[in-house]
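Lecture 7 notes: from sequence to structure.
We start with the chain below.
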Amino acid sequence: MNEMNLIKNRPDWGGGIQKNSLNLLRLLAAIQVFYGHAVVHMNLSGTSVAGIIMSIFQGVPIFFILSGFLIWNSIEKTPNLKTYVRKRIFRIYPELWCAITISIISIFFLYDRWNVKDLMLFIVTQSTIMQFWTPDSLRGFGCGTPNGSLWTITVIVQFYIVAWVIKKFLSHENKKRWFVTIAISLAIGIGSPQLEKLLSETIYKLYEATFIPYFWIFMTGALLCNYFKEIMPILKKFWWVGLALLLAVIFTGFDIDAGYGLLQTILKGVTWVGFAYAFPGLNIKDDISYGIYIYHMVIVNILIELGLVGSWIYFFIALIVTIGIATVSYLIVGNVGSKKKGQL
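Predicted structure tokens for the same chain:
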């Protein structure tokens, strides 16, 4: 499909897709991930109220939904595969490589049980598409994984590849194909937890590192984007209904296990995306959410190695340092990547 046909076949969004506060939503999701990891790995006791507040912004499902939503829009604006790939590389890898560099330096100075072979392999896997792997020699560092949250990078990169392919078959007009795709992805998501009983531990962990069990979450976001003009006016007006239903699901515990709670995840998607478009004035200019996500466990693990755990003082030190590094990273490294993307 050439560029002119691509532009011709885009849905008529009227420019409204850009008017949102999604940066705020991503920031809250990133802070939720930080909170969840820091409380567990720094031996802290979170309150039930804080847990409920954090749960409604559950980071990974929200990031996956937004990835589906935003990548669908990005494909619409991208004329060819080469440009698409370069945009994805500049979006993900410059800041990721900085986070990995800091992580490796901390291992070198704070940990004495690494070996050259494992460390070199670890650098390669972390820097490419196998971020879920940690060698046994590094299992004693920090919480047991130098930056375990990076497993989602593996999954998101896979979806970026798949999205480019399936976008050609899921047009705006072909609702039947959309229905079948969503139905199949939901069936796979619901069936995935059952595979743990059938597969060996290693095979199941490898399966979890693919996009397949989370495909339904990405496609929820893609669906919202593809039918933006039809769906978003409803979500903007009734986002609070979604929030009420979400709280009801959280308090009752009634849900369907699909890796992540199916009802909770869908409600989080429609609620917060609707909220973001209902209140675009709440948006923040600088999106440091990605930096918070990729740097936070580096900082937490450093504090663990230094023995600075068990106190909320250390929690806030970790949070402040993480936000500081994420901000610097965004302004220097992230902006360079953004400019490169803009030139494509």
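Points to note: Residues 1-14 have pLDDT under 50 and may be disordered. The CA atoms of residues 79 and 115 lie 45 Å apart.
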